Amino acid sequence: MTFPKITIITPVLNKELAVKKVIRSVAAQSYRHVEHIIINGASSDQTAQAVQDFQEIYPHIRLLSEPDNGVYHAMNKGIDLCTGEWIIFMGAEDEFFDEEVLTDIHNRGLLEKEHVVYGNVIIKDDSPWAKDDTLYDGPFDLEKLFKRNICHQSILYPVSVVKEIGYYNESYPVTADWDYNIRCFARYPFAYTDKVISLFQSGGTSSQGSDDSFYEDLPGNVIRYFNLDPADRLYYDFNSPFYGPVSRYRESELRRQRDELMLIKGEYLQLLEKQDVNTAQKNKIKDQLTQTQFSAQAESEEKIEHLKWVLLLKERDFVRFRRNLEITRQDAIKQKMKFSHLVDNYALAYSDQKNRADRYERELKDIKGSWAWKTGSFFLGPIRFVLDSLLPWFRKSFRHFFSHRQ
Questions:
Q1: pTM value?
Q2: How far apart are CA 260 and CA 296, in angstroms?
């Protein structure tokens, strides 16, 4: 069995106390084939000194201290320094779930193939996208990945994949890891394990703010990463994971083309007014420009009609589902009423028979307490004998009868 080296990369800035948590967590791992690269962005506190103190104890720690342009710039530096075969990124305040995380991943054989391995994290403190103590976030498919990201504290990337995909896009200062995961998903398989990899401390860069440019670029990036043809009607299907990005891309392209067309039309009309062109030629050019504009509008309207048609189909499916649900609910009510009626009948029968038995028992007690019974008269003696003999049998039959009725 081989034991590939795992590189843990931690970007840090002014985290003198917090960085000790991740250092101790990495050092406590039972899997010993690790290196821990800490990229210190020229902190103004004693972060560098704190790391150097640990370097004297743990030789697997490597430190780079110099100014950087943000967390993803620091992570890209860590990629350049990596000497391991697998990479996982951990923040200064993050920590592994337990001491056996990396050993367990290795023993499951997940580090033997060229795929991206990911699991779960537990969120510590509230974030804009998850609450404190939440388990985040199970297996991902494309549709889910286009809506939310996988925590990089739960992902192990093969170095071969990282070298092929390249660096984080530093133009996305908050969501570059999301963009990176989509790029990886387009070219390599992802392997999910239900294990909790780490405890993710909310409050870092990815938990604060948003990248408007990332969301604006997402449709075009998806088209480019997955090499899609936005004109292919296969992606018009509402069930396609690419439906959302491709639809947004087409809408943005139609708006851009319409804006360019209006700009060109205005320029041509201004040019016509300045040049010595007869009225017939002017009208002909104006008609051509107007017809071109109508063609672009018709294409946009066709797209809108398609969306309306898809929405109508979904509404019909919902109505059908709601109708079936109502039928099921009515059947359940009928069964409940029928069952309640049977229960009521059995309860009444049981109460009636119990009342009879109580009455017979009271009558027997009255008879036994009478003077004639006690004196054992000649005529009541045989009756007393018969009743004493039949009373146990009667009770036994009474219990047997009701046990079958219930």
A1: 0.67
A2: 11
